[in-house]
Amino acid sequence: MHETNISEATLSELSGKLRAAGLRTTKQRLALADLLFSGGNRHITAEILHAEARANGLAVSQATIYNTLNQFHEAGLLREVIVEQGRSYFDTNLSDHHHFYIESESRLIDIDNQDIAISDLPQTPAGFEPAGVDVIIRLRHK
Amino acid sequence: MHETNISEATLSELSGKLRAAGLRTTKQRLALADLLFSGGNRHITAEILHAEARANGLAVSQATIYNTLNQFHEAGLLREVIVEQGRSYFDTNLSDHHHFYIESESRLIDIDNQDIAISDLPQTPAGFEPAGVDVIIRLRHK
DNA sequence: AGGTAATTTAGAATTATTCTAAATAAATTA
DNA sequence: TAATTTATTTAGAATAATTCTAAATTACCT
Q1: What gap in Å lies between CA B131 and CA A103, rounded to an integer?
Q2: Nearest to B129 among A83, A131, A139 (CB)
Q3: Among B63, B80, B97, residue at a domain's last position
Q4: Opening angle at CA A84, ends A80 and A89, nearest 5
Q5: Does residue B29 reach within 7 angstroms of strand C, measured from its CB?
Q6: Are A121 and B116 inside 8 Å of each other by CB?
Q7: Most buried among B4, B74, B118, B121, by the most CB within 10 A?
């Protein structure tokens, strides 16, 4: 495998990322990781990733798309964002941040953590601890 | 229809609520509205509502459960809460508030608006306006 | 009561996702 | 390197929540 549009450096970085997550470096995972992590941050669904993979000449099954997204998520390489009924988004931005969601375009936009302030957090019910805070600001056309 | 466990007063209130929303008062809608609105506030799924309806002796189809939840939501009688992949919750509490979500128990808990403060809201992208803000604090057992 | 439009329904269809079990590929061992 | 083990990929079936369809029923208006 030696695509001209992927640098060897990037590939070996990605391979290391997979290893660190306890995942073997396979052709499919490497190519999907490249799509996910080699550009800027992305919000992606299984359907979109599958389409992109095929558009880039990667023969990959739907099952592998789902397996890979779930494995990357479990490994902490992706954050799951739940904003609409039925479909999951995965976010490559792992920093502490939130989202605008434009329903009419099925589009997510990051809100940097320093651009929003949640103070005065309520007391967590006894016996539980916070596992994450999601702020979603739903937008509509003006 | 004259169940002993439902007051006439409540029924006529509910009927008015339906009328106001432009919905005819049918046996099914009235009984479902009673389940939804006559006790305290609730977070309910289609499956749970269907089970409760049957448990209360109401013969109602799955399709009607979904139709009703969606119509009540469109009419502003219910708020939809999206916190897990696949399933929708509907909240009878229409006040401005947020949620704890206990994933291990599929349970939502209201957070009163005055118990949380989101200041310093980021600027809304040009051409859009906020249609709603959802804060979800995901909880796990300590 | 009679007519019209809304509502309900069973069952099929759809959509996103997960499962299954067989084939393939990666890692490990000899 | 060849053999063996184990993980991965895959097609296709299965599942789960939801929506659709078209026919039967019911509410509402006159």
Answers
A1: 10
A2: A139
A3: B80
A4: 30
A5: yes
A6: yes
A7: B118
In this structure, are B64 and B107 located in the same domain? no
Domain encompassing residue B58: 8-80
* Whether residue A76 sits in one domain with residue A51: yes
Cβ-based contacts with strand D at under 7 Å = A 23-24, 26-29, 59-64, 67-68, 85-86; B 24-27, 45-47, 62-63, 66, 70, 86-88
Please indicate, yes or no, whether residues B73 and B101 belong to a single structural domain of this protein: no
Residue B119 within any structural domain of the chain:
yes
Residues A141, B135: C-beta atoms closer than 8 Å:
no
B41 within domain boundaries: yes
Read out DSSP for B62-75? HHHHHHHHHHHHHT
- Is the pTM above the cut of 0.90? yes
Cα–Cα distance measured from residue B13 to residue B26, given in angstroms and rounded to the nearest whole number: 14
Sort out which chain A residues have CB atoms less than 8 A from B140's CB and list them.
128-129, 131
If one counts the domains in chain B, the total is 2
Cβ-defined contact of B137 to A121 (cutoff 8 Å):
yes
Pull the structure tokens for residue B123: 């600027």
Q: Are residues B67 and B111 in the same domain?
A: no
